[in-house]
Amino acid sequence: MASTKKGWILRKRRYGKSGFKKGHTSWNKGMTKETDERLKKMSKLKSGEKNWMFGKKHSEETIQKMKEHKLSAKPKLFGTPLERHMFFIKLFFLLPFRYQMQWIHELFVRGAWRDGKNGLRWTRLRINARRMRELKAEEMKTTGRIPEVPIAPSGDYDPRILASPLQKS
After folding, report:
1. What residues are paired with 103 via a beta bridge?
2. How far apart are CA 54 and CA 45, in angstroms?
3. What residue ranges do the domains of the chain occupy?
4. Residue 46, Cα to own-chain centre: how many angstroms?
5. CA-to-CA distance for 30 and 19, rounded, in angstroms?
6. Cystine design at 75: which of 71, 87, 88, 158 (Cβ 3.0–4.6 Å)?
7. Are the C-beta atoms of residues 14 and 28 closer than 8 Å to each other?
8. Is 4:10 a contact under the CB 8 Å cutoff?
9. Are 113 and 119 contacting, i.e. CB atoms less than 8 angstroms apart?
10. C-alpha span between 39 and 132 (Å, rounded)
11. How many angstroms separate the first and last alpha carbons of the chain?
C-alpha cells in the first residue's frame, strides 16, 4: 500500500478495487476514471470473457480499410513532406556518386563533423550499411532467391570437443 500523506494513489487491483484516494502526483498524470474502466475491461479479458477487440466484424473492417488505403505515397517534388521524401528516395538511386553525396550530406548538413572522429566513423558506417542493403537486394534480384538465415545447431556437442583433454578433467 502506498502512503496517502503526499497525495499518492491507493490502488487495490488485486482484489478488484481500483480508484483514487487523493489527487494525482507527477508520475501518474493523465490517469482518469476511463483508465480504471479500461483496466477492468482488460482484467475481464484475461479472466476468460469473449475478446471484444478482435471480433469478426472488427477484423473485416480492418481488412477492408487496408485494401482501400495505399501504404506508400506517390513521389512528388511539390507535395506533402512524405511525398517529397519518396521523391528524393526515388531520385537517390538514379544519381551517380550517390554515396559520396550522402557522405557530404551526413557530415556537413546533418552536422556529424561536430563529433570529430566519432562523427566520421558514424557517417562511414551509415553509408556502408546502406550500400550493403543495396548490394543484398541486387544479389537477391540476380540470383532469384532469398538467402536463408542460418539456424543454430541443436543436439549433442561436437565430438571433437568432447574428446578434448580439457574436457576430461
Report:
1. none
2. 11
3. 13-67, 81-143
4. 26
5. 14
6. 87
7. no
8. yes
9. yes
10. 46
11. 54
Phi-psi sector, 55: left (phi>0), alpha (psi -120 to 50), beta? beta
pLDDT at res. 124: 95
d(CA 22, CA 8): 6
CA dihedral 81, 87, 90, 91 (to 10 degrees): -120
pLDDT of residue 132: 93
Distance of alpha carbon 31 from alpha carbon 84, whole angstroms: 39
Long-range contacts of 51-56 (CB under 8 A, 24+ apart): none
CA–CA dist 22, 15 (Å, integer) = 19
Residue given cell 474502466 in the structure block: 37
Please give the pLDDT value at position 64: 67
Q: What is the mean pLDDT of each run of 10 residues along the chain (169 residues)?
A: 45 45 48 64 57 54 66 81 86 90 92 93 94 91 84 78 81
